Amino acid sequence: MSLTTADSSAADASDAARLHLTGREATFAENDIIVSKTDARGVLTYVNDIFLEISGYTEDEMIGKPHNVIRHPHMPRCVFKLLWDTIRSGKEIFAYVVNRCKNGDHYWVLAHVTPTYGSDGQIIGFHSNRRVPTRKALAVIEPLYKTLLEEEQRLGAGRASVEASTKLLMDTLADKGMAYDRFVLSL
Length: 187
Known about the structure:
The protein is an alpha+beta fold. The chain has helices at residues 13-19, 49-55, 59-62, 77-88, 135-155, 159-176, 180-186; strands at residues 5-7, 24-26, 34-39, 44-47, 93-100, 106-117, 123-131. Helices cover 41% and strands 24% of the residues.
């Protein structure tokens, strides 16, 4: 895997100071797959070498930590709500996600997240494979996520902000005549 960085103007100054965002995008090879597994609460139980290389963390820093340790502040919470609601219901989901590296860089992925079942048929964890998204897809996703995030920020940190951005997302998808998964896979 080869990492490269490209300048991005996405990071705003206040978030950069608080969360050490560089505005640089890290990338990984098209044929690489980032893999992680969590328990049912979202705590990491496995990460592959590509995950570690792109994120800049060591295995010891990741195992036992919540998966959201790599959450980028520019990722709309409503998309994570949709993701968690979907996988907790026993369904798979494809989603575009921007993550934060340990050094403050960011990287985009097309994630495929599925529940893992125990012998009793109950969900015991989640498995995620992530690939490099196309630039064409990101040209659609980035402005959509920016709009969703602005809606969340406009209403503050409470539940109402996630509900409002979720409604905005669902209205946008309804205008396109498709559900989120179909929309994601159409890009």
